[in-house]
Amino acid sequence: MIHRGSTMNGVTGALIGALLLSLASCAQPLTTREKGTLTGGTLGAATGAIIGAATGAPGAGAAIGGALGAVTGALTSDQLWAQETLLTEQQREIDALRREVRRQREELERLAQER
């Protein structure tokens, strides 16, 4: 029989482990995909630990929840990353077009002054 105190210790341990994992990965700037994977994994592990505690297996719940959360976070953030990439490319094109318009206006003004 599992004592309530040991179940809470398991939940606390799983939550501390998830927190340490998320803090350890902050040593360098993360990409959108990495942030999403980490966030999903951390939230999944915490949620899994809590649900697992109710069934007497907080460690297994944290492991399963962490894995599912990481996959979900990675897939979601991959879509966000693709959108960010597209928007960045579109902004580059807009900036290039603005420079070209500015150059053409200056050329027109120069030609008008020569006449």
**Count of strand segments:** 0
* Alpha-carbon distance between the two ends: 98 Å
Strand content bin? under 5%
Q: Kindly state the percentage of residues in helix.
A: over 70%
Description:
The chain has 115 residues and is mainly α. It has one domain (4-114). It has three helices and no strands. The chain has helices spanning 4-24, 32-55, 58-114. It is rod-shaped, with a radius of gyration of 26 Å. It starts with a helix and ends with a helix.
Describe the secondary-structure layout.
Elements: H1 4-24, H2 32-55, H3 58-114
Please outline what is shown here.
With 115 residues, the protein is an all-alpha fold. Helix content is 89%, strand content 0%.
